[in-house]
Specification:
Distance between the termini: 78 Å
Radius of gyration: 22 Å
Strand content: under 5%
Largest sheet: none
Helix content: 55-70%
Order of helices and strands: HHHHH
Shape: elongated
Length: 140
């Protein structure tokens, strides 16, 4: 009628053997997440630099690259090349603002003051850049 299972379950074997893969601490996971957000923000910043060059964006890109390299343990981040087209600046500023906000949240959770300040500065800069066209047209 019923025959008992003679071998161990695949699930219990997998659950019981936890030494087969590396484990990361919460701090390491937050470093990885923060580096990813900053690298994405750097890519958008590079796109903005291409579309509308400015010394502020140049300085921000360098600071972002330094922080990504620090969080990744040394390797320099990949930089965006020429995209070939002119993206809308407002959309790029919105995306950069959102990415800086995500970086700020992670930086705050891991108490990384340098990155939190950088992210907050970038949020302010991109918010101001989004407001400029509205001020010029009188729409508000």
């Amino acid at each position: 009628m019923y025959e008992p299972i003679r071998t161990k379950s695949v699930h219990s074997t997998m659950a019981g053997n936890t030494t087969d893969f590396p484990h990361r601490s919460r701090e390491e996971e937050l470093d990885i997440q923060l580096a990813g957000h900053l690298a994405a923000l750097l890519a958008v910043t590079d796109e903005l630099r291409e579309a509308a060059p400015s010394t502020d964006l140049d300085a921000a890109a360098e600071r972002l690259a330094e922080q990504v390299a620090r969080l990744r343990g040394g390797p320099a981040p990949a930089r965006a090349g020429a995209s070939g087209g002119q993206a809308k600046l407002a959309a790029l500023h919105r995306r950069a603002h959102a990415l800086a906000g995500r970086a700020l949240v992670v930086a705050a959770s891991r108490a990384d003051t340098a990155v939190a300040i950088l992210a907050a500065e970038r949020m302010d800069a991109h918010a101001a850049a989004q407001a400029e066209p509205q001020e010029l047209t009188g729409v508000g």
